[in-house]
């Protein structure tokens, strides 16, 4: 990925001396620090903070985000793949790194050499890692994953004590933590609230069943973004907020809900990313003429159409279609015609004040001029804000701003 560190108020473009294409993403590191502080303010003393930086920190850039997280007092980082952990180690990150997905046996040596912490949940992988670690003369910390109702990876609650005992009795591995993940903690539906509370109670029983064997479970953790704010009883020894760190609210746990629930301790998250481009051409289109593939959009009157050099190859997915709007000079303008791989067209209207080279903001924080966020796009597209930010391709340069 292309990284640029800019400590400046001015938006860089091709005329400012930056060797960069017209389409780029600003990452506001001050907003990252704000969001981490918002989470830390909800934690009891002694509760650790694990910040997920998987999927290139949800599209924001794993290495810069990880360095800032360290500076802000994070205790752990979490990744999905061993390769993501290796990238952080090569960048000088020494904080403990938890690998959330199950590793391949071929990755065991890398895990051990890079001092990564794997998540395991079955006897076969535990025994295999133990053999490798013992042969290397090492003892590897493991976090045991328990499935309390997510239905993804994890051992059953009944299996957890025996697996904890297996780890405890092994020479090459040690039990550093036990964790689970919530399925519907971001929902306020009564049945989902009850389901999450059952998950919490199940996890509490798992922890106790391990302790009943005389084994210390280590760092117990469960809370994701929603649970950090909605279920303080699920904080245990550590929390793992993902989405809120990047400035978006999870599901029903909105800013309005949180601040209505506890107006004495308001929460205000700030999105980190905005995506910008420029109008590189303006076309005069006659009534009845069509725009883009498939001739799906036909002008209803003589009008102007702008072109921006950004498309689904950059993360503006084709399925967004005409639901996607962009901000130009403080107004929203809709996409017209199908989004192409590298370009899309913007309907500017009949008497448009827009000029060639005017800046376009696809989405971003409102305090930086955007009139829509990744959440707004997600709502129209029937998806979640994570997918929007993760989908911004690595060919889109990231410019890191210390503001």
The low-confidence parts are 1-17
Describe the global form.
elongated
Helix content: 25-40%
Q: Count all strands and give the number.
A: 20
Rg is 24 Å
Please identify the structural class as seen in this structure.
alpha/beta
Mean pLDDT: 94
Order of strands across the main sheet: 3-4-5-6-7-8-9-10
The portion of residues forming beta strands comes to 15-25%
- Main sheet properties: 8 strands, parallel, barrel
Secondary-structure map:
Layout: E1 3-6, E2 24-28, H1 29-40, E3 48-52, H2 54-58, H3 62-71, E4 76-79, H4 82-90, E5 97-99, H5 108-113, E6 117-120, H6 123-135, E7 140-145, H7 160-168, E8 173-179, H8 190-211, E9 219-223, H9 225-230, E10 238-239, H10 255-261, E11 273-278, E12 281-285, E13 290-291, E14 297-298, E15 303-308, E16 325-328, E17 331-334, E18 344-349, E19 359-363, H11 374-381, H12 385-390, E20 398-401
Describe what you observe in this structure.
By secondary structure, the chain is α/β, with parallel strands linked by helices. The protein is built from 12 helices and 20 strands. It has helices spanning 29-40, 54-58, 62-71, 82-90, 108-113, 123-135, 160-168, 190-211, 225-230, 255-261, 374-381, 385-390, and strands at residues 3-6, 24-28, 48-52, 76-79, 97-99, 117-120, 140-145, 173-179, 219-223, 238-239, 273-278, 281-285, 290-291, 297-298, 303-308, 325-328, 331-334, 344-349, 359-363, 398-401. The strands form 5 sheets. The chain has an 8-stranded parallel barrel with strand order 3-4-5-6-7-8-9-10, surrounded by 4 helices. Mean pLDDT is 94; it is low at 1-17.
């Amino acid at each position: 990925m292309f990284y640029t560190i800019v400590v400046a108020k001015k938006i860089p473009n091709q005329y400012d001396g930056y060797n960069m294409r017209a389409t780029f993403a600003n990452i506001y590191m001050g907003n990252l620090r704000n969001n981490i502080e918002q989470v830390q303010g909800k934690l009891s003393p002694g509760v650790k903070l694990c910040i997920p930086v998987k999927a290139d920190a949800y599209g924001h850039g794993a290495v810069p985000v990880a360095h800032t997280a360290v500076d802000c007092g994070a205790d752990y980082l979490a990744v999905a793949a061993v390769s993501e952990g290796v990238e952080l180690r090569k960048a000088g990150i020494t904080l403990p790194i938890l690998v959330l997905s199950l590793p391949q046996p071929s990755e065991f040596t890398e895990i051990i050499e890079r001092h990564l912490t794997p998540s395991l949940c079955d006897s076969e992988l535990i025994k295999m890692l133990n053999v490798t670690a013992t042969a290397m003369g090492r003892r590897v910390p493991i976090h045991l994953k328990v499935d309390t109702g997510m239905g993804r990876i994890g051992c059953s609650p009944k299996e957890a004590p025996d697996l904890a005992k297996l780890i405890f009795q092994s020479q090459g591995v040690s039990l550093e933590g036990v964790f689970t993940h919530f399925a519907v903690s971001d929902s306020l539906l009564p049945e989902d609230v009850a389901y999450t509370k059952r998950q919490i109670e199940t996890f509490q029983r798992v922890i106790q069943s391990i302790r009943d064997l005389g084994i210390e479970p280590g760092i117990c953790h469960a809370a994701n973004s929603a649970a950090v704010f909605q279920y303080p009883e699920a904080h245990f020894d550590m929390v793992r907020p993902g989405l809120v760190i990047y400035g978006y609210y999870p599901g029903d746990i909105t800013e309005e809900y949180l601040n209505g629930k506890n107006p004495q301790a308001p929460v205000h998250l700030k999105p980190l990313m905005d995506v910008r481009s420029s109008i590189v051409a303006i076309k005069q289109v006659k009534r009845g003429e069509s725009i883009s593939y498939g001739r799906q959009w036909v002008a209803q009157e003589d009008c102007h159409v702008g072109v921006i050099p950004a498309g689904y190859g950059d993360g503006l997915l084709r399925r967004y279609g005409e639901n996607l709007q962009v901000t130009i000079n403080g107004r929203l303008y809709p996409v017209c015609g199908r989004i192409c791989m590298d370009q899309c067209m913007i309907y500017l209207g009949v008497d448009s004040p827009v000029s060639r080279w005017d800046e376009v903001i696809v989405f971003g924080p409102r305090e930086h001029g955007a009139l829509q966020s990744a959440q707004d796009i997600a709502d129209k597209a029937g998806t979640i804000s994570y997918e929007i930010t993760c989908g911004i391709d690595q060919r889109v340069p990231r410019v890191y701003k210390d503001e």
